[in-house]
Specification:
Radius of gyration of chain B: 29 Å
Distance between the termini of chain B: 73 Å
Helix content of chain A: 40-55%
Number of domains of chain A: 1
Number of helices of chain B: 26
Largest sheet of chain B: 4 strands, antiparallel
Shape of chain B: globular
Structural class of chain B: alpha+beta
Distance between the termini of chain A: 20 Å
Order of helices and strands of chain A: HHEEEEHHHEHEHHHH
Number of helices of chain A: 10
Domain Cyclic nucleotide-binding (chain B): 17-115
Largest sheet of chain A: 5 strands, mixed
InterPro entries (chain B): CBS_dom, CBS_dom_sf, cNMP-bd_dom, cNMP-bd_dom_sf, Diverse_CBS-Domain, DUF294_put_nucleoTrafse_sb-bd, GlnD_Uridyltrans_N, RmlC-like_jellyroll
CATH topology of chain A: Nucleotidyltransferase, domain 5
Keywords (chain B): CBS domain
Protein name (chain B): CBS domain-containing protein
Shape of chain A: globular
Helix content of chain B: 40-55%
Number of strands of chain B: 24
CATH architecture of the largest domain in chain B: Up-down Bundle
Strand content of chain A: 5-15%
GO molecular function (chain B): [protein-PII] uridylyltransferase activity
Strand order of the largest sheet of chain A: 4-2-1-5-6
CATH topology of the largest domain in chain B: Four Helix Bundle (Hemerythrin (Met), subunit A)
Oligomer: heterodimer
Amino acid sequence: MTMLVPRRPQVPDWPAYLADRAEKARDPRLARFFAAGTASPDTPIGEAPMVALDMETTGLDARRHAIVSIGVVPFTLGRIALSERRYWIVRPQRTLHAESVTFHHITHSDIERAPEFGEILDDLLETLAGRLVVVHYRHIERLFLDDSVKARLGEGLIFPVIDTMAVEARFHRQSWLARFKRWVGRPPASIRLYDSRGRYGLPLYQGHHALTDALATAELLQAQVAHHYQPEMPIGQLWT
Amino acid sequence: MDVELLEIRQHMGRFPPFETLSDALLDEVASRVEVSYFKAGEEILALDQELHELCYIRSGAVEVFRRGGELHNRLGEGDIFGQLSLLRHHRVRYPARAMEDTLIYFIPEDMFQRLCEDDDEFADFVELQRPRLESAVEQQRKNNDMIITRVRKLLTRYPVMVEASTTVQEAARQIGDFQASAVLVLDEPGDNPRYTFRDSEDRAWQVRGILTDSDFRTRVVAEGRSPDTPVGDVVVNKMIAVQSDESVHEAMLCMLRNNIHHLPVMHRRRPVGIVHLSDIIRYETQSSLYLVSNIFHQPNAEGLARLAPDVSAAFVRMVEEGADSRMVGSALSTIGRSFTRRLLELAEETLGPPPVPYCFMALGSMARNEQSIVTDQDNALVLSDDFDPEQHDAYFLEMARIVSDGLDACGYPYCKGDIMATNEQWRQPLATWKRYFSEWIEEPNPERLLHSSIFFDLDSVHGDNVMVEQLQDLVAEKAAQSPLFLAAMARNALNRTPPLGFFRTFVMEKDGKHNNSINLKRRGTAPLVDLIRVHALACGSRSQNSFDRLDDIDRTSLLAPGVSDRLRYSLELMSMSRIRHQVIDLEHEQPPDNNIEPENVSSQERHNLKEAFQALSHAQKFLKFRYPMPSSRSR
């Protein structure tokens, strides 16, 4: 199997990185978050506490656009606990474009009443602390979080994540079989969240709600592990 | 409402037992759900594992097994499992495995218990099967006024009553004064204590009978009687009455059976009113009554045949108005009997009076008062023992032909098995019938067992009904004493078995195979009726109707407590499903049949039918053990 899957890009030594940041962080909230650390890389995925994270943004550029909502659902490989879900609408400091308002099912009045990102950061960090974060397409969540935190606290927020899109890409984009198919002219399989879910028989959800998408991501990871790995798979093999 | 949980609550809200939950409860359930994914082939619940959650299938499919590994059920989207374990010992009794990639919502036990406490319908759905069937039947019944409303509600005033010595002129005047259409005739207390009562002055009276508007016309004026004739000389000495606490439906049936338009209503033995046909019609636009009186007014067979479309119209209306299967079955049987009776009257008009007494008997569903809209004719003639084939048979053959052809024209096709009075074998004197029945019971063989299952549901339609009563007595007495016959009938009753249930758009068989449709008569009602007949024969019941037979069985200890109730509910549910699907056929201008297609079955109905199939299946298993073949020595 390993022969068929190309070598993964270099992954940082996450426990060391987090320990280092815990020492250097000036903001006590960030220091607490980093100190909670992460499970060691050889922890089996079946035993790791995880949390699915999704956010809706006004656009794709972390420097120009803003976060409008964040949904998180703590879970394990065995269970996704909806009772522990959290969902925040946040008021962006940048103006909200009309077209994205309809897109997110969030209205102007929802946003006017919503707290600013800095006000929910405490809660968010507490929910994420000590859990391995799971996202679909890490670049959005990672960049926007890092950027938003940096803008407020002057220091960033980076942590290990499992990216279900990257997992999907391993089997549907980078595998030798996928490459062969591409070489013979077949269109590549879509690895967007809802297309990926379809491959595992997961139901269609109305997307674009941060909490629904977080739930959808958690379910997708359960399905990916059930189909491609074992619960014994070390998390260090999956995170980036 | 928590918008972020829409995805979950909208899905659950489409399926029973969640579909009837209040929004607040549904929100709460959705917010407590835990989700887990299972790959095809993966085990979801292991046998004897501890369980503290209810399982809901969000997507995919699940197979549930019995302890022995035998397939118990196959479930799809929106189905639940694990409830029995939650209600009992928290150990998995039926292990479950994902058949396809499956997403399960787990509902924690405390939430489940709250749902059971706060929502009766939810509790009924998940709790043990008997109350479930019961509640389904009750639900059907709730929609029906006719069954729960008592006939006294229709009474607006006391009846006009006159003494037997009153002259017809005086009685007619009183009817006019009170703007009534009938009087009750009272007499000194006599031979019938049932209708004896005391008036406000403590004087004892007996109700002799009723004299209606039309009686004045036919029995007084038409016969040229003097206005001074006492009513006592005119009134017919026969009282047909109902008790005031009987249902409107019961009163209606009584009028249908006796073909009368006025029905005295009694409180115990005292008359409290008279119900007229139009009172019931006004109350319930029930057209089967009109239909029956119409049948008796037809001058010939062609006229009768023209009424055939009215039968299905009356049937559809009855079902739409919420009739239960017993009401439909007995109304359709009454209509069928009325056609038969009218044809016999017409035959007698054509052929002259019968040379020897006879009784025309109905067999099968008509005899059981369980006729459906899809039915053929099963009938036979019992002749007096004075019957001499040389002299008399030509008459009765012609009579049988007139009836049989007439029924065919009225929408009751000829019996494919030739169980009709036109068949010489089934047009015999009483003594021959007794011999037939005795032989069938004493020396059963496959053909005789088949005959027994048709002929041992028998009832008189017209003529000298004592002869048919003698046959009913013979069956009731002999069959109960014949273990060999009962054992053979029991085996015969197991030839047709119910399916396991439904899976998606298919009917699922016990071996896991799928079918596109199911014949609900062949696979449901008929085997259940067969099974009830065996028990009824064993306990010497003289009833013909399956529900009445169950009442008789209840008075014995043949069945464990509660079993007969389950069978009663199962029969009602399966019969009603069949009836409803026939209405759907008629509404789509399709010829009605006994098939139901799973896509036309609501999810609630699926669950109910499945329970009914299981009840039948269990009862069939029991039947085998209850009536074993006697060992060769005791034969």
